[in-house]
Specification:
It comes from Hymenobacter gelipurpurascens. With about 450 residues, the chain is α/β, with parallel strands linked by helices. Helix content is about 45%, strand content about 15%. The strands form 5 sheets. An 8-stranded parallel barrel has the order 1-4-7-8-9-12-15-16, surrounded by 4 helices. The termini are far apart.
């Protein structure tokens, strides 16, 4: 079993609804992936990439409780297996099927766990998962900013969406692990920071910097800060719901995927409103903050920048982010992967998918005609230069991944058996601890 550093890209599969649920924003459709998926996989191979953030479109695959149309997933995942590309499977990316409604639906977590288990059962060779992408951003844009899906604008709606989304992620991890005991879960969450503009803004900035951790605190079973506990309780979370998250015991199978863009840092005004600050601390400083809190292996799961008029803007950003990854590693943080997101240009992210304008955003490794961009050439060279160096330099950069075509090898089967036994031992220990505490 060969250790891997996870050089990755992704195929953008955002699919929220806007216009009060009447319009589906399907990035796979807008970017031409349904037509050119085989070509897209060719491009992944051309770059020398073995790991791909990818998932089936949830709104056309999940037809109802226990009802699925796997036709597109069967074709695409069969081809990924043939190419020995390991997908990091993104099951829910900012949207749910029309029949589910939106993230205010309390039935979403349990039903989504069933969907995740059905996927894992159909594709047992898949090991890497991001069950729900950017949980915090999904809840914030849908239920606090009023941009997507339920399009609500209240703290209560935000907490309702957040608790349902994170519970769905937790239950999906458990259901996937029942099928694939050695599954690894890469969270892919936005890493944020809020800078106080003046002394009067210190207090609101502190609250926002506490709030940014809510999704991962709940997901990893970490007790939230006292003020955030009051915020959760004041906005509809019950003690029973909170304690559900504290009892989650899957952190040992998690990699803290964090996303960083220039828009991830914010300037906070005295009244608590914010505006973009641009890059101030950068990926290195903010990632250290998240790692200090959760003590998990890290993967840089998303970044990009528009190719501007000079043609080298995205290339320079790639090298800056890569320098930050190496700085994080040299500080002793176990960082296991890096991702330029996404493979091709995207559409309408300049308005955060709030408007259906058809504007192409030139931030992919390839344009929508599938011609390589300068950043694609640079990333290909970066991967070629560093692929063989990193595993020899540091064990903290190695993850024991089972590649698709090795799934039935003896070592892979032994790895799954060991993971199954470890899970059973952990469950037994937890049950004994609960019994002892009740005496």
């Amino acid at each position: 079993m060969t250790p891997h550093f996870l050089f990755a890209t992704g195929i953008e599969n955002s699919n929220p609804t806007i216009h009060n649920g009447k319009t589906r924003v399907d990035e796979m459709e807008k970017c031409g992936h349904y037509r050119y998926w085989q070509k897209d996989f060719d491009l992944v191979e051309e770059l020398g990439i073995s790991f791909l953030r990818y998932g089936p479109p949830i709104h056309t695959t999940w037809l109802g409780p226990g009802r699925y149309d796997w036709s597109f997933a069967d074709d695409t995942f069969r081809d990924l297996y043939r190419r020995n590309i390991a997908p990091i499977v993104d099951l829910c990316h900012f949207g749910v099927p029309d029949w589910m409604g939106n993230f205010q639906n309390p039935e979403f977590p349990e039903l989504f766990a069933d969907y995740a288990k059905a996927f894992a059962t159909r594709f047992p060779w898949v090991q890497l998962y991001t069950p729900v992408n950017e949980m915090f951003i999904c809840a914030e844009f849908s239920a606090l900013f009023g941009w997507w899906n339920e399009q609500l604008k209240s703290d209560k709606a935000f907490i309702t969406a957040l608790k349902h989304i994170v519970k769905a992620n937790v239950l999906a991890m458990k259901s996937i692990a029942e099928v694939r005991p050695d599954a690894l879960f890469i969270q892919s969450e936005s890493s944020e920071y809020f800078h106080a503009e003046n002394p009067a803004a210190i207090r609101p900035a502190e609250l926002l910097n506490a709030k940014r951790f809510l999704s991962l605190d709940l997901n990893y079973g970490r007790r939230v800060d006292s003020e955030m506990y009051e915020y959760l309780m004041d906005n509809g979370m019950t003690r029973e719901e909170y304690h559900f998250f504290l009892h989650n015991r899957l952190k040992h199978q998690c990699i803290m995927g964090n996303d960083y863009y220039r828009t991830n840092e914010h300037r906070v005004h005295a009244d608590g409103t914010t505006r973009a600050s641009g890059e101030i601390f950068g990926y290195h400083v903010i990632t250290r903050q998240y790692h200090d809190r959760y003590r998990l292996p890290v993967m840089h799961t998303e970044t990009n920048l528009w190719q501007g008029p000079c043609g080298d803007e995205a290339v320079n950003w790639l090298w800056k982010e890569w320098a930050n990854v190496l700085r994080v590693r040299n500080d002793g943080v176990p960082i296991v992967g890096f991702t330029w997101y996404s493979l091709t240009d995207q559409v309408d992210w300049d308005t955060a998918l709030r408007e259906n304008n058809g504007i192409v955003n030139p931030l992919g490794l390839y344009d929508l005609d599938r011609n390589i961009r300068p950043v694609g050439q640079a990333y290909k060279q970066l991967i070629s230069d560093w692929r063989q160096v990193l595993p020899a330099q540091s064990v903290c950069l190695q993850v024991p991944i089972v590649m698709p075509k090795d799934t039935n090898e003896n070592f892979a089967q032994e790895k799954q058996a060991d993971a199954q036994q470890a899970s059973q031992d952990s469950s037994t220990m937890a049950a004994n601890t609960t019994s002892a505490n009740s005496l």
